[in-house]
Amino acid sequence: MADLAAVSAWIDGYRRAWESNDAPDIVALFTDSAVYRTEPYADAWIGQDAIAAEWLFAADEPGETTFRWMPVAITGDVAVIEATTVYRDGPSYRNLWVIRLDEDGRASEFTEWWMEEPDSAA
């Protein structure tokens, strides 16, 4: 069941994994057969091992970003999150995340939309 406390805990874990680039931190966020999409129609990363491998392949450096978020909707097992990611030496992105959490707070599905903010790299 997704509620604000569960979603906040999951996003705290996501940021911890984002900063640590530690496979156990990444794996802890997802169910065994989770589906992660970096874009709605992108080929999915399926399963904890694939998610960790792909995440680490494209990892950001620790401390490279700031991140703020707010819930758009939380209902049943689904949370929709609006966020902003700002890279220290690069562009800023607006994000929309759809997260499906299981009963123990791990994501069984995660899909993100990310758009570079106009003139953010200038």
Question: Quick summary of this structure?
Answer:
The chain is of the alpha+beta class. 26% of the residues lie in helices and 42% in strands. It has a single domain (4-116), classed as Nuclear Transport Factor 2, Chain: A.
Which fold name is given in CATH as the topology? Answer: Nuclear Transport Factor 2, Chain: A
Spatial ordering of strands, largest sheet: 2-1-6-5-4-3
* Low-pLDDT regions: none
Which bin fits the share of residues in helices? 25-40%
Q: Counting H and I runs of at least 4 residues, what is the number of helices?
A: 3
Q: Span between N and C termini?
A: 42 Å
CATH class: Alpha Beta
Number of domains: 1
Q: How would you describe this protein?
A:
About 25% of the residues lie in helices and about 40% in strands. It is an alpha+beta fold. β5 (about 90-100) and β6 form a beta hairpin. The longest helix is centred in the first third of the chain and has 17 residues, at about 5-20.
